[in-house]
Structures
1.
Amino acid sequence: MSDAPQPRGGFATRIGFVLAAAGSAVGLGNIWKFPYITGEYGGGAFVLVYLFCIALVGLPLMYAELIIGRRGGSDVLGSLRKLTQSSGPAGAAVSYAVGGMAVASGFLILSFYAVVAGWAVYYALAYAGLFPLEAGGDMFGSLYGKNKSLPWHTFFMVLSVGVVAAGVNGGIERACKVLMPMLAAILGILLVYVGVTGGLSESFTFLFKPDFDRLLRAEDGGLKPDAILEALGHAFFTLSLGMGAMVTYGSYLKSEVAVVRDGIIVAILDTVIALVAGLVIFAVVFSHEGAEPGAGPGLVFVTLPGLFADMPGGQVFGFAFFVLLVFAAWSSAISLLEVVVAFLVDSLKLDRKMAALGAGFAIWGLGIWPARSTSALDLLDNITTKYMLPLGGLGIAIAAGWLLTKEDREAGFRALGPIGDVLAKGWTVIIRFVTPVLVALVILNKLGVLGGE
Ligand code: PHE
C-alpha cells in the first residue's frame, strides 16, 4: 500500500467499452428473468411497458452513471465524492450513502448471482455429456439449495476473479470482446433452430401483441398495477443500474465524446437480446402442447430442459442454450466484482490482484449460504434487487440531477452540437423530476405502501 497514484488502466477501444458495458447489462436478467416475468404477466402488454421504462428511466440513468464515472475518474464512491464537492455536506452524505450501498450491492448480488450461474455451468456440462441428463425437475432439485451446487458456484467465482484480476483492458475488455460476439452468434443459431422446429409465430404474437386486459386484470377482474412497477424495477436491473457498475466502467473511458451514443447502443443491445431470448424460449414452450409460459423462475431450469428432451437435436440445443446463459452471466459477474475491486483499488489503495482475490474469496464465502439455502437465496435477491438497486438508482438520479455542476452534468451532451443542448435540457428535467418520482414509486410499492406485493 502506498499513497502514490495507482495506475488505473482503462478501455483501449470504444468498441471494447461498448462490449464490456453490454456484457454487464446482458445477463441472467435477460435470459432467465425477463422471459419468466414476461410469461407471468402474460406477454405483449408487459413488454410494451418494459420498453417504455427502459426509455424513460433506464436511458437517463445510464447516461447519469456513465458521465459520473467519466468525469469523476474513480470508483463509484470516489467519483461521487469528487463531483459533489461543490454541494458541501449534502454532496458528501449522498456520496457515502450511494457509494457505500453500491459496493455492498455488488458484493451481495454477486454472492447469489454466482450460485445461479453455477447451476447453468452444471447444466451446460450435463448437456455436453459429462453428467447424466435427468428430467429437468430432478436435475434442478439436486442442485437448488444443495451442497452439490458448491463446486459449480466455486468454479464460476474463479472464472470471474481471474478476469477481474487481469485488469480492465487485459481482463474485462479482452474477455467481453470474445464472449459477446459468441453470445450473439449462439443466440442467432438458437433463433434459426426454433424457426425450423416451430412455435416462432406464436412466440412472436405472445411477445409483441399487447393484451392490456391480461396485464391489468387478474383472472378475477382485479387490477394488477404491480406489473408496471415490476417492469420498472427490472428495467434498471437488466441495464446494471443503481449500483455503480456503469459509473465504474464509465471511469475507464478516455473521452466523453461518445457517452450518449454508447449508452443508447448498450440499452438497445440489452433490449434486443432480451427480446430474442424471449422469442426463442417461448417458441420452445409454444411448440409443445400444454407447456406453460407462466412457469415462473423454473421456466429456464425446469420447464425448458423437459421440453428439450423430445426435440430433434434437443441435447445440442440445450448445450448451446446453457453455454449462452453462462457467457451472459460471466460478463455480468465481472462487472459486479469490478465495482467492489475498483473501490478497494481507488478508494482504499489496494493492489488490484490482491483486491480481486480478497473480494472474490469473501463473496464466494458468503455465497455458500445462498448455495445451500433456498431461503437465503431469496432473501439476498429480494434485499438487493427490490430495495438496494432502486434506492441506489434514486440516489444516483439525485446526485446527477441536483448535486453535480452543470459543466459535469452536461459534459456528454456538448459533443453533440446544437441538438445536444436540446437533449441536455430534456435529460435534466427527466433526471431531476421524472426518474426520482418513478423510482420512489417502485420503492414505496415494494414496501407495500401502495398496496402492491
Ligand atoms: N444486468 C445484469 C443482468 O441482467 C445484472 C447486473 C445488475 C449486473 C447490476 C451488474 C450490476 O443479469
2.
Amino acid sequence: MAQTKILLVGNWKMYPESIEEARAIERRSNAILKTKKHITCVLCPPALFVADIARAASRKKIVHIGVQNIHADHEGAHTGDVSAAQAHSVGSRYVLVGHAERRALGETDIECAKKVFMALTTGLVPVLCVGEKERDAHGQFLKNVSAQITEGMSLVPQHLRGRVVIAYEPIYAIGAPKPPQESEIHHMVLSIRKTLTQVYGAAVARNVSVLYGGAVDASTAPQLLHAIPELHGFLVGRASVDAKKWADLIISLS
Ligand code: PGA
C-alpha cells in the first residue's frame, strides 16, 4: 500500500442546522485528532458553512475541509452551484463526486468524469463515489461498479490518476442500520483494485485510496479495517454529524 494513514471523510449532507453546531463538531474533531497522527480527517460541511469551517480548521492544521459537490464547469450562469475554484479559494481541498444521493438526482458518469477532471486541475482531491444498487448472482454488479470507475476517471490525465480517491458505497448500505457482510465489502474492494491495476497499471493502483461507506460507526469501522487490509478508510454520513458518534469513531481507530 502506498499509504498507511487512515483516510476518514465525514459527509455532513444537509446537517447540522446551525453554524454554531458545525463549529462545535470542527472544534471537537480537532481536539481529538491532535494525538491521532495516523488519521487524515476530512470534513465536508454544507456549502454555506465551508468557508467558516475551513477558516477555523486552517488555524489548527489538523482537519481538512471538503465540499459535497462542485459544478463541472469552471464558471458560468449556474444558479445555486459552486465551482471547484470557489471551493478551493475558501480552503477546501477535497470534493465528493457522484455521491449516490446526487446520482439519484440524475448525475451521470460523464458528469462525474468532468467534475473529477475539474477538481484535479483546480487542486482538489476528488472522492469518486461508486456502488451498486443491488447484487445479482452473475456478478454484473462488479462490472457496473468497474464501469463507474473507468468512466468517472476517463478524463483524468495520466499524471493525476493516482490522486483520485474511490469511495465504495453500496446504495443499500447508505442510511442502513449496519453494513453488509465484511466478505461482500472485501470482494468489491479487491475487484476495484483489480480494475485500477488492469486499466491504469500497478503504480496508479497503488496510489489510489479506496474507502468504504455505508453505516460506518465505531462499532463497525475497526473490524472492517482489520478484516480488509486493502481498505484505506471510510466515508461516513450519519456518524460524522453526531458529535459523540464521531468522537467514538475517531477514538475507535486508534
Ligand atoms: P451513512 O451514509 O454513513 O449515514 O450510512 C454514508 C454516506 O452517505 O456517505
